[in-house]
Amino acid sequence: MAHPIIFDTDPGVDDAQAIAIALAHPDIELLGMTTTYGNVDVTTATHNALLLAELADQAIPVAQGAAAPMVKPRHPAPAHIHGANGLGDIDLPGVRGQAEPRSAAQFIVDTVNARPGEVSLIAVGPLGNLAAALQLDPALIDKVKQVVVMGGSIKEGGNVTPVAEANIFNDPHAAARVLTAGWPLVMVGLDVTHRCVLSPSHMARIEAGQGKLGDVLAGSYAFYRDFYQEMLGIDGCCPHDSCALAWLVRPELFTSQRGHLNVATEGDAEGQTIFAPENRAFIEPRWSRSPLADVCLGVDGDAVVEWITETLA
Ligand code: BDR
Ligand code: CA
C-alpha cells in the first residue's frame, strides 16, 4: 500500500538519505517537501531539497518554511556535523527548479485538505512548519492520517544537551504544540535511532545504487562519519531521519509504548521530551493531561539499517 507523505526536513546529511528513500521506495508517494532551518539555514535547506529531487530526476514540489524558532533566538547551524552547505561541504551542482510560491505551512494545509485522512506528515527537523500549519487550520488534527516525528528522547538522554534532542531543542515551543496537538502521532527519537548504525560497507552499497544522488549521499556521509567517530567512537552514522520512514513502512521493526508527551520549553531541561505512560498514576495528574501518543522505545537496529540499504542499493 502506498503511503502519501509530506516530508518536512532540514537537509542535512541524514535528511538527504531519508529524502532518497522517500524518492525511491515504491510504497511511498512523496507529495512534497517542506523545509525548515535546523541543520542549515532555510534557504540552504530549500536548495538542498530541490537538488536532491533533481538528482533523482523527479519533480517534487518544495515549499519553504520556518527560518527561525517561534520564541527563542536561533542557534548557529551545526556546520561541524553537516558541513556549511548541509551536505558535508562537497561540491554541489546548481539547481534548476524553484520553491513553491506557497509557504510550507500553507502547502501542508492545502495538501492534507485535498486528501483528508490519507496524508502522513513525516517531520525530521525543528517543528515550526507543523506548528504553523496547525495555527492556519486547527482541524488538521482530524484530517492527517498520522504524524511521524523524528525527534526527542525518553530514556536515551540528549544529543545537544544532557536531556534534549536537536530537533526538539531547536524549537521547543513548536515541539510542545506539535507533540500535544492530539493528532495521531508517533515519536521516533534517539531511543531507537541510536540503536541503528549505518556502516561504511552499507554506504558503499547505497553509493553504488543511487547514481548521481549516490555521489552526494556518500560524499556527505564521509563528513558526517568523522563526527560520529570523534563524538561517539563508532564507525558509522545513525540514520536518524531514515528511521522515521522505516517506521512508516516497516512498523513491525519497532516496539512502542502509548502515553502522554510534554516538552520542557525553558530552563536547564529546555527541549526535553517527557513521557508519562498511559494509565500510570503519578503524584499529580499534570503530566498525563496531554493527548495520547505512541513513542518508539525499542527497535531491531540491524533490520532497519538493512531496510535502508536495500531500499537504496
Ligand atoms: C536530528 O537532528 C538533526 O541534526 C538530524 O538531521 C536529525 O533530524 C537528530 O537529532
Ligand atoms: Ca533532520
Question: How are the SSEs ordered, and which strands pair?
Answer:
Layout: E1 3-9, H1 13-24, E2 28-35, H2 42-55, E3 62-64, H3 79-82, H4 104-114, E4 120-123, H5 128-136, E5 146-150, H6 166-170, H7 172-179, E6 185-188, H8 190-193, H9 200-209, H10 211-232, H11 240-249, E7 254-263, E8 273-277, E9 292-299, H12 301-312
Parallel strand pairs: 1-2, 1-4, 2-3, 4-5, 5-6, 6-9
Antiparallel strand pairs: 7-8, 7-9
Helix pairs in contact: 1-2, 1-10, 1-11, 4-5, 5-7, 9-10, 9-12
Bound molecules: beta-D-ribofuranose and calcium ion.
Provide a descriptive summary of the structure in words.
This protein is α/β, with parallel strands linked by helices and 313 residues long. The chain has a single domain, classed as Inosine-uridine Nucleoside N-ribohydrolase, Chain A. The protein has 12 helices and 9 strands. Helix 1 (13-24) runs parallel beside helix 2 (42-55). The longest helix has 22 residues, at 211-232. The relative contact order is 0.16. The model has no long low-confidence stretch (mean pLDDT 97). It binds beta-D-ribofuranose (BDR) and calcium ion. The site of beta-D-ribofuranose has 13 residues, from helix 1, helix 6 and helix 11.
